[in-house]
Amino acid sequence: xxxxxxxxxxxxxxxxxxxxxxxxxxxxxxxxxxxxxxxxxxxxxxxxxxxxxxxxxxxxxxxxxxxxxxxxxxxxxxxxxxxxxxxxxxxxxxxxxxxxxxxxxxxxxxxxxxxxxxxxxxxxxxxxxxxxxxxxxxxxxxxxxxxxxxxxxxxxxxxxxxxxxxxxxxxxxxxxxxxxxxxxxxxxxxxxxxxxxxxxxxxxxxxxxxxxxxxxxxxxxxxxxxxxxxxxxxxxxxxxxxxxxxxxxxxxxxxxxxxxxxxxxxxxxxxxxxxxxxxxxxxxxxxxxxxxxxxxxxxxxxxxxxxxxxxxxxxxxxxxxxxxxxxxxxxxxxxxxxxxxxxxxxxxxxxxxxxxxxxxxxxxxxxxxxxxxxxxxxxxxxxxxxxxxxxxxxxxxxxxxxxxxxxxxxxxxxxxxxxxxxxxxxxxxxxxxxxxxxxxxxxxxxxxxxxxxxxxx
Amino acid sequence: xxxxxxxxxxxxxxxxxxxxxxxxxxxxxxxxxxxxxxxxxxxxxxxxxxxxxxxxxxxxxxxxxxxxxxxxxxxxxxxxxxxxxxxxxxxxxxxxxxxxxxxxxxxxxxxxxxxxxxxxxxxxxxxxxxxxxxxxxxxxxxxxxxxxxxxxxxxxxxxxxxxxxxxxxxxxxxxxxxxxxxxxxxxxxxxxxxxxxxxxxxxxxxxxxxxxxxxxxxxxxxxxxxxxxxxxxxxxxxxxxxxxxxxxxxxxxxxxxxxxxxxxxxxxxxxxxxxxxxxxxxxxxxxxxxxxxxxxxxxxxxxxxxxxxxxxxxxxxxxxxxxxxxxxxxxxxxxxxxxxxxxxxxxxxxxxxxxxxxxxxxxxxxxxxxxxxxxxxxxxxxxxxxxxxxxxxxxxxxxxxxxxxxxxxxxxxxxxxxxxxxxxxxxxxxxxxxxxxxxxxxxxxxxxxxxxxxxxx
Lengths: 457, 457
What we know:
homodimer; alpha+beta; Uridine Diphospho-n-acetylenolpyruvylglucosamine Reductase, domain 2; Uridine Diphospho-n-acetylenolpyruvylglucosamine Reductase, domain 3; Alpha-Beta Plaits; 17 helices; 18 strands; 21% strand
């Protein structure tokens, strides 16, 4: 171990290596509510792909488990290291290397945070449109979990916005995949394979992301509904309308009450309307032209009325921003309220009413709470689970995940499986597919050094 | 062999098996101009995934090379079988299983052609937006090559429009990947890995594709430019404008002359303008609102003028349709004109001027012709190569591909590597990456029975 320490220090420099008691608690976990902390033996902070390569070659030689870490804001325990392991922290690889306006891409190092990238692209009038609701999240983390967020309904998730990677294989080879083009048909798509692999296949050292023009005109509509089912039935109609909402969220009444209270939101919804509301739809619209936006807002308002909204509020800029921010903080609100887990099942959007009804039934039967909000346009349902008993909760989650899978959905839409949900994943997934995933893992990482506790046993 | 014949007949029924002299010439090749024909030993026409599974289990047992075939309209020789091999033809698996309007997806069997799917989605006001220019192409073929086409500039390529698969692994296991949702973060994305794998990883037996609303208002602008460079420099500006063109093609003057002559196009461009034109831009716009479309057409016209177009013609519906159809037939025009190969290099769109200049230099030095057109918005350059000498042509192609790779592009944007371009691919690609691709191939297909001559040696 002394030898390994010395060699890591050689690679990254002594000041960029932490070991033993000097490792801060932060590196022992991410934001998962259920995956406990584990302090790693080493934290190395490389500054180049070559350093990452040398670290991986060393780890392979000594079969040291390696966990990549961006900002540590993940929710599935994919950044929880092994106690005998090495955390490769990308905090020093946080440069925006290029904002390329002709190709509408940015090239960044993985440690760049979403707020840094937002700042860097603003002047060019462009934006990276993946907003998972946590601006301190890193682009590298977005790659690992295939991050989504509210704007995915219009712009897609990380998978649709990342066009090229530089990555280091567990043997130390540095490869590049994809590029500044959005179409390639020349061999298997390694970019797409690495996206969403939660640090189990390769360590990403450079990311090329798509940028979109920032549209100058935006509006937010809030529509209370007396019935959650009606909300869910409205969603496909809004998608089909061609209005192309940039945000299409549902928030149930308990969640709205909690985030309103926490964030001191004043949205102008009278108390008697609030009391008669089971859930809200939030519809974001944007346009490069103000008049067109006005036309769309009017049409969306009429449509929401036709679909059963008890009223429609066009929020002013300040209220809209506050509501979106409060919605983004729903995880923290749930955590503060004592939620025991937070999940993000995805189902076909037509299946949301049935799925939610069954999930609530299961929760009621377990005497547990399951309240939430979600990216309704994508069928991505976020539920805060209140159920102290670990065994009961595990059974409840298993039931909810099984319902989702049975209707053609999946356990996670954007948080990932990580360590938090892998037993459910392995139990519910087709064994032939799991065996294939393991062989793919083996193709990248024959010694199994990358995040050995994530996805698989 | 008698035994194998009998067992295939048992699986698919005697009338759905062809062997020996009964195998029509068609099954011996696709539309590649350079990959010669090879009559397979067997052609089986299964009607279910279970039959495909039984065929693959049998093929694995006897190590018989297997080539999947959709419509045979591919351009890279990925559907050219081995002489001792089995062609699995999906012509009988051509059912549209569901048009799901709530989730805006269609579920189809792989043998469905694009024109059949277009017909099936029309009534619901929806469309599958991958138009590779050959309506007889099959959806299964789209998956294999990651097909693109003119509308990719707005809607993306096959990869962005295919959300779920049912596929049979070479061992015979039937798996499903993805689903009716466009976001999932639950294990490696096998859908994306199989897309573009050219029949080397699995045989696809069911495809779930995204559908988009058909927009009722469309317009096509034709802009002649005196200088090809100017055309290429105009492209990023049009993309940045936010006009979101649904088509953004360039056509060089020789190609325009050829397709105009072949298809008897009359576009209203006066002879003196034609004579002073090096290349044309074709800009397609569409909108759900007629007034908005008119506004966009005006804005696009002004922008094209600012960018150096010598004039802008708004084509009437009939002329526009004819031009697009003629452009789609550019491959056949090139073939009829005696082209010796047709390639579809992709480069970052900002690199198109430099790439085209170098490609033309290389062609001139080889005393060869290289004329073309392309999906300019995607940096996807289609060149018809006129060069009879095989060795000289090989060297020229190698030079052109090397330039593309050097500027961050790839050998093929949408046709695939197949058998036609694999020696260039293997020579120009990073050996560490090729080794990884081979290990992934091995993870799916340990006996190497699926398309053994495609992508790899």
